[in-house]
Structures are given as C-alpha cells and as structure tokens.
Write a structure and sequence with these properties.
By secondary structure, this protein is of the alpha/beta class. It has 13 helices and 13 strands. It has a 9-stranded parallel beta sheet, with helices on one face. Helix 2 packs parallel to helix 3 (88-101) and helix 10 crosses helix 12. The longest helix is centred in the C-terminal third of the chain and has 23 residues, at 313-335. The model has no long low-confidence stretch (mean pLDDT 94).
Length: 369
C-alpha cells in the first residue's frame, strides 16, 4: 500500500491574513512539501497540470525533475497529466526522459482536465474530450511499446516510421493510472489495458466512488487481467488534523468557508459527513481512511490533498509531520486481513522483475516444446 500527497498547485489567498503567495513562492513550496513528504516516510508525491490561473502547475515534468534531484526514494507522479490537450508524442518523450533521470522512480496519472477554456488554447474541442483521451492514450501506449510506429487517427497528423526517444528504461514503460471522477469510459479504458484506475474521491459521497471502482474492477476481470479484487486502484482524500478535534475544526473553518472549491456551499460539518474530508484528530484520520476499504475493497494507493485553500506552507508542513506520525498505523491497518493474492502497488523495479520472469518462463516453455 502506497501513501502520498497530491497537489493541484492553486494560488489562493490565506483568509486569516489576507496574504496571497506569489507564483514563485508557490512553485518553490511544492518542492519543499515534496522533500518533507519523503522525510516523514510517504511513498508518493504527485503534482498537477493546469494552464490557467489560479494554478501554477503548468509544467509537471519540470517540477518533477527538480524534486527528483532533491529526493532519493519517493515516487513522483502527476495529478493529472492532460492526455486530451497534450500531444501524446510529447508525453511519450517528456516522461520517457524523466523515467531515465529518476531511475524509474516515477509514474503518471492521465486525466481529461476540467477547465473548458484550456481545450481551444491547445487547438482542441472540449466536446471531443473523451474521444481525445481514448485515441491519444492508444497512441501513447504504442509509442512506448513499439520501436517503430505507423499511425493515423482523427486528432493529430499521421506518423510514419516514427520512433519515440528515449526508449523506456529497462524496456518497461512508466506505469499509468487513469484518473476519473465520473466518466465510465475512462474506467473502461483503464480496465481494457490492465492499467491503474484512480478515483479523485474528494468531492463525492462513498456511494459514487464505490460504483465507479466496482465498474472498473468488473471490467478489469472481463478483459482477463486477473480477478476483480486484483485490479489496481488508487483513491484521493483530504484532511486537516490537529492533536485534538476542536483545534482542527476551529483552525480549518475559515479556509473551508472561503476557498473557491469549498466556499458558499455545504457547511464544513455537512461536507465532512458527505465526502472523505476529515477534519479532526490524527486518530480520526486513521479510522476514516481505513474505512475507505469498506466500500472499494483492498486497494494500492492513497493520496491526500494537503496544500490548498490558502493554507500557509508552515501549516502544510505541520500537517505532514502529523501524517507521518500515524503512517505506521495506516500501514498496519491496511495490511490486516489483506488477501495474499491482491497485488502491491506497482513500482518500476517490480515490473522489471515481472517482465524478466515472464520472459524466462516463455523461454523455458519454448525449449520444453
């Protein structure tokens, strides 16, 4: 089970001070937060991709490379890479280079994005969002698995005898998670290829998340990648914790009430009841998070949103310290009762070993025949 954090890189005014961080401060803060995540023992840090204010996360590969150079162990990922408006050739080569630079310490999550104006900025039509995601990923996958590609589709110029460089490290392409909030076609796509499925989860009731994950698991089994409970699932989540619940609620309430993504909607109390948001003590975070398994089954990756809503960097780092303290409890809780046939979260080293084992088996069968 992997635990980590994900960010969308929003620049939001702190409602308690009226101060808005500069873009420079916010970008540098993402690196500081990533270093802290590794220090407290987390497994993954994921950065977003947006091309419009108030977000600063327009170049995830640049940020990920800078983080990789300052960390040693933590896995780098995205939240998300826009497969709709980013050319798949560009994705293949940018992330292929990053895979080499990080010695395989990376993967990526693909998504359609939810800000409509971005599509025409990159010459795309939002009405084709799902079709773009399906076609562009089909090409990306071929670029990583085939040395020479001939391609003709609807949304980009044809390719003839094209080779994406560099080729994947150790002959194994980066692992791909398909992120979706509510689109069954994306869950179907993840299942078809045997890739991971990540449900953002943070704005939705448990019943909705349960339905989406169950659909992906059924289709994963249908396509012959394993049993439904062996499908690779990731979930989002968010929290604000202090040593006691009252302090957490009092401190977080102004951020919740004023942040664009929360403000002027349900109350803090209603939102925490209806979604995975946990505002309370560290122990409440552990109990709530372990409860996710009750409706999605055993899964592989849990990411938390912690640097948003105008929270100052100092507070975000304190939140990570508290998360690090309960990390052993989370790991033990998710390990308890986990069936042996449910796979661990994918890593580059494990996938290289599995590929080598598969090749050895195929050779042995050929010799035997």
């Amino acid at each position: 089970m992997q635990f980590g954090i994900f960010s969308v890189g929003d620049v939001t005014t702190d409602p308690t001070t009226g101060r808005t961080p500069t873009e420079h401060e916010r970008i540098k803060a993402q690196v500081t937060i990533a270093r802290k995540a590794e220090e407290v023992g987390l497994d993954v840090v994921a950065v977003g991709q947006h091309h419009n204010p108030p977000f600063v996360a327009s170049s995830p590969t640049t940020t990920m490379a800078w983080i990789a150079a300052q960390t040693e162990r933590i896995i780098l990922s995205t939240s998300t890479t826009l497969i709709t408006t980013t050319d798949p050739v560009r994705i293949a080569e940018d992330y292929g280079t990053l895979q080499h630079l990080t010695d395989g310490r990376m993967d990526l999550m693909l998504g359609r994005g939810n800000t409509g104006p971005v599509y025409p900025w990159f010459g795309k039509d939002i009405r084709e969002g799902v079709n773009l995601a399906l076609e562009n990923y089909a090409l990306l996958r071929r670029l990583w698995t085939e040395d020479v590609v001939d391609w003709e589709g609807r949304f980009r110029t044809p390719l003839q005898g094209f080779t994406a460089t560099p080729r994947p490290l150790d002959g194994v392409a980066p692992f791909v998670w398909h992120g979706s909030i509510r689109t069954p076609e994306i869950a179907e796509q993840a299942a078809y290829y045997g890739d991971g499925f990540f449900h953002n989860h943070i704005f939705w009731p448990a019943s909705h998340t349960q339905q989406m994950v169950a659909f992906y698991r059924r289709r994963f089994e249908h396509y012959g990648h394993g049993t439904a409970d062996q499908a690779v699932v990731g979930l989002g989540g968010q929290f604000f914790i202090r040593r006691n619940s009252q302090d957490a609620v009092r401190e977080f309430r102004p951020y919740f009430d004023n942040a664009p993504v929360y403000g002027h909607g349900p109350s803090l109390e209603d939102f925490t009841q209806q979604t995975p948001l946990t505002v309370g003590s560290p122990q409440e975070l552990v109990e709530r998070t372990l409860g996710f398994r009750d409706y999605v089954g055993d899964y592989q990756r849990q990411l938390f949103l912690v640097d948003h809503a105008g929270l100052p960097l100092k507070t975000v780092l304190e939140q990570l310290d508290l998360l690090g303290e309960v990390l052993p409890d989370l790991r033990a809780g998710f390990a308890e009762g986990r069936p042996a046939h449910v796979p661990d979260a994918p890593t580059h080293a494990a996938r290289v070993a599995a590929t080598a084992a598969g090749a050895s088996l195929a050779t042995a069968e050929k010799v035997s025949a």
